[in-house]
Amino acid sequence: FVNGKFCKDPKFVTVDDFFKSGLNKAGTPNEKTGSVVTLVNVNQIPGLNTLGISIVRIDYAVNGQNPPHTHPRASEILYVAHGTLLVGFVTSNPENRLFSKVLNEGDVFVFPEGLVHFQANVGKYPAVAFAGLSSQNPGAIVIADTVFGSNPPIQPNVLAKAFQLDTRTVMDLQAKFKK
Prior knowledge:
This protein has 3 helices and 10 strands. The protein is of the alpha+beta class and about 180 residues long. It has 2 domains: about 10-140, Jelly Rolls, CATH 2.60.120.10; about 145-179, no CATH class. A hairpin with a 7-residue loop joins strand 5 and strand 6 (about 100-105). Helix 2 (about 155-165) packs across helix 3. The two termini are about 30 Å apart.
């Protein structure tokens, strides 16, 4: 095992271990966020094992977003192929400084490893972006899903205090994010 994956015996490696087609095809954004991420990591291309890279395609509906999330094992570089995106990341405590910019077709933006970041389609048409990540398996922690959709749920009084909300609001949020 290297990075959690078996290294394939070189005698059995084929060209298909280094190939994946279909990134030119749009995904269907989901109703919840208005976006869909098409992954191409070591699980889709075994030849990425140990190379420290992966790529994704993100399709955004009008007003869609890739909600606040983090990649615990990768930095990300995002390229806007079509549309207009508001993007940003927040530095860690104590500053919690927001770095944000509106990107247009052809623009590129970098999200440092581990920082909470987002993208939102602020244009009048669907948008498409491609992102390179510095890991064969970057992981993704979507903040709202993780905090309000944990299994089992985090005690509502803990989240109420952390987010300065009443317990009923937290319970309502947990019900929305329950899988």
